[in-house]
Design brief:
2 strands; 7 helices
Length: 159
């Protein structure tokens, strides 16, 4: 069983380790490496991705929104082990592409880790966790709309 994740940089390192000694890295391999109960770090990782230039890739905000929605619904339902559908778990990328993306995410993860400290602990148990899950669901449902607005704004500015 994997040790508890300490911070986002540790999460990135763990994902990088999943890529070692493999010609293709599946999302299932990554999930196995980070652990099935890593709801918080996974939500934070989505935040790092959306904070990075990767969020400018068409479809990325909507995809990340769907992942947040899936995570938050599972949190709200009290599911103990993170689950993704099989077709997503089989999605694969080359280790080189994964490592390149992780290298780009590391500086943002370090920056965020400096500001993250255990605070507001009441939000990770019971009713507080439900409130956080509902907030994540609300944010995730508007992300596709915001992506359309972003793409419209970018296209309109280039004219």
């Amino acid at each position: 069983m994997a040790k508890e994740l300490k911070n986002l940089e540790h999460l990135i390192d763990r994902i990088g380790e999943a890529a070692a000694d493999s010609d293709r890295v599946t999302l299932g391999m990554i999930m196995e490496a980070v652990g099935s109960r890593s709801f918080g770090p996974l939500l934070a990782m989505v935040g790092v991705i959306l904070f990075s230039p990767l969020s400018g890739i068409p479809g990325m905000p909507t995809t990340m929104g769907m992942i947040v929605l899936l995570i938050a619904v599972q949190l709200l339902l009290g599911i103990k082990r993170f689950w993704l559908p099989g077709f997503l778990m089989k999605r694969a990328v080359s280790p080189e592409k994964l490592e390149k993306a992780l290298d780009r995410l590391r500086p943002a993860a370090r920056f965020i880790d400096r500001g993250l400290r255990p605070r507001l602990s009441f939000l990770i148990y019971g009713v507080g966790l439900g409130v956080v899950a509902i907030a994540c669901i609300a944010i995730a449902t508007v992300m596709p709309v915001m992506e359309i607005v972003q793409q419209f704004t970018v296209n309109h500015e280039t004219r």
